[in-house]
Amino acid sequence: MRIFGLLVIATSLLFLAGCKKHDAEEQAAIDDQLIQDYLIANNLVADKDPSGVYVIIDQQGAGPECNSTSDVRVAYTGYFLDGEIFDGSNSQGITFNLGGVIEGWRIGIPYFREGGSGKLLIPSGLAYGPNGQGSIPGNAVLIFDIDLVEVL
Questions:
Q1: Kindly report the CA angle at 48 between 84 and 62, in degrees rounded to 5?
Q2: Is the pTM value of this prediction over 0.90?
């Protein structure tokens, strides 16, 4: 009987894990469609990283390149698809290590060189996921206007 109970628990856990993966895949598809709709509605053209992050490069920049673990200074404005701003820096930017930020930034910021600017459109799974963070609700697609001020 005990073995049966353990099998039921193990099967339930596998089912739930499968559901979460399925839910994440479904959410990624929903987010991708939302981003594509936003791009069309705003007459924007973006490159899509294999991860699902969309990048719009307005200015490539001529300075040094960075990578996903670089120290950088970035001026930014973060907002939702409806245009509501949830965060931002001043024009001087903030300094941080890309290893300590959301995955969408670790993927997207290295597309720019120092002095570069543009937009990152980040699906929820590469931002704050289904739980959200602070004023950012769960499963929120995030958009960031980015100025890569400096690669340190």
A1: 85
A2: no
